[in-house]
Amino acid sequence: MVKLNTKNLGFRIQLTLSIFVLLTAIPIGLMWYSSSEQILQNSVQQLFRQSNQVITSHLDDFFDEAHLVYQHQITEQQSLPAVVKQRDNLLKYLANVLAHHDEIDYFYFASADGHLLSLGRDEFGNFVRIESDHDQAGPTTSYSTDSAGIGTEVINTNAHFDPRTRQWFQQAVKSKGPVWSDIYPGAIENVLGVSLANALYDNNGNFLGVWGLDLTLSTLEHELQKNILSPNSRILLISDQGAIIASSDKGLPALMNLGTPLTPIVNIIWENIYGTPPSNTIEVNQYPLQNSTWMSAHTKYKLGEDRYLTILLISPICDFIGEFINAKYYAMFFTIIAMLLAMVFGSQGTRYILKPINQLQATVKRITLGQWSSRTQLDREDELGELSRSFDNMAEHLQETICQLKDEQKETTRLNNLLAYNNQELERKVQDRTSELQSANVQLQLLANFDPLTQIANRRHFWQLFEQRSKNNTGWLMVLDLDNFKSINDTYGHLAGDRVLQHFCSVCQSCIGTHALFGRIGGEEFALYVNDHDVLNIHRYAQQLLACVRNTPITLDGNSIQITTSIGVTHSTLDKKNVYAEADKMLFKAKTAGKDRVIFLSETSPQS
């Protein structure tokens, strides 16, 4: 058969791999057949455990729904005393809780005087309001209402009802938190219920009453029926006293005691597990009954302090044996077939497939070692032959590509060297240009801030520095003007006038010291700012400046010319805004008074 399909290598590979898988499955199948009973028991036990976990999870959701209501009340603790004191507000609160918690059947509040207001759903989902007729224990009336508790249609009456005598009320008063009541028959026949009650106190610790909510366990029956493992399986919830609370079998009524003859297998199991200590593990056991064997799994579910429910799952083992036996026979049949096929095709198929693969592998190793001219030259017409020809073409292309890459590598090296040289030249030019820009920035800074003729601060820069120094300090502003500067310009020319201005600045800078701020604010007008609080020191300072200028003449065209200056002085304080105008005014007075003098503003004169 292999020779008839020489061009269909895929078929041969799939067939050979299938044979190998089956050969591996033979010992496993034999082992499984010999231990089938143990496998069956383990499989059923695993099913029991999974079903038990699902039921336990549903019980958690069922009972956690009730605790969630009181957890929410913690955030509303300050407002609840006011809610229970007003009947309409209390009814709205009860309706709101029921709307958000479907598992709760009734939610109610019983005051310290025995008054009851309850809202809930009956077995058909209709809303019912139960309310005391007076503000204390006494007659009660049941009304048919909407979801908000509004309605006046009377359903039933009770001559007297005192919630304070009920177990849930008394247990809540004694407890510091929510407490479960015992399981009890509800208002609906054969339906069991349980209450979670919680006492309410005001901010001063005064007892106001007890909250209560009811859960009916009949809603669990549908969940139990969904999780049965076989047609004859049963799942039961049993109380500590041996009463069936809920069952997947509708033939077992609620509250039925396990002592009745209707449940012989359950009675046998209950006798063995009754009184066992609570455990989180699931116990799985077998029990013989007449001509059949039953498997059971049970665990304890904690309902409250010292109260537990027993979750019991039972099923006859014969429910699982039928399908198991059929599967066992099928496994044996296919195992025998696999053995026959493996004997026929295994040896020849493997040899035929591996020979060209080994040849191709050897060629790959030679190429890996650098023998680029190696080729497989496998002469076959199947998929491996096509693979061989494709591989030879790839090797030839690879050889050409490697030669091309070597040539490109040489060119890349040359280009990289050229690029490195160009980068160095570019970096040098960038550095030169950066130095030029820095020098130009320095020149621009000098031109922007300093007078090009006298090399002192220009008008803009002087007043900028003046603003900075006088912002948080007091000092003295002097405005200076060269006397008779116009006549010098007219007599000796403007170039000589520029020399006079330069000479004047040089003399002033030698006299004023490094701490003073000196700048040219006009043609022959200058400004001087000094931080000195003593008026007598400033007076002497100004007189020395006048004498220094007067006693330092300049030579023009061979003539020694004495120059003088007039000075206006004002005190610069933090609250003054017009110091320049004041100093300029004093300068004008100095000019008018005969020049070559200093005039202080009247309130800052030495005489003052």
Automatic annotation (TrEMBL):
Keyword Membrane attributed: yes
Coiled-coil portions: none
SUPFAM superfamilies, per the entry: HAMP domain-like (SSF158472), Nucleotide cyclase (SSF55073), Sensory domain-like (SSF103190)
Subcellular location: Cell inner membrane; Cell membrane
Residue ranges annotated for the GGDEF domain, each copy included: 473-603
InterPro entries per record: dCache_1, Diguanylate_Cyclase, GGDEF_dom, HAMP_dom, Nucleotide_cyclase, Rev_trsase/Diguanyl_cyclase, Sensor-like_sf
Membrane topology: Multi-pass membrane protein
UniProt keyword terms in alphabetical order: Cell membrane, Membrane, Transmembrane, Transmembrane helix
Known catalytic reactions: 2 GTP = 3',3'-c-di-GMP + 2 diphosphate
Occurrences of domain HAMP (ranges): 351-403
Entry's EC annotation: 2.7.7.65
Transmembrane intervals: 12-33, 329-346
Keyword Flavoprotein: no
Origin superkingdom: Bacteria
Name recorded for this polypeptide: diguanylate cyclase
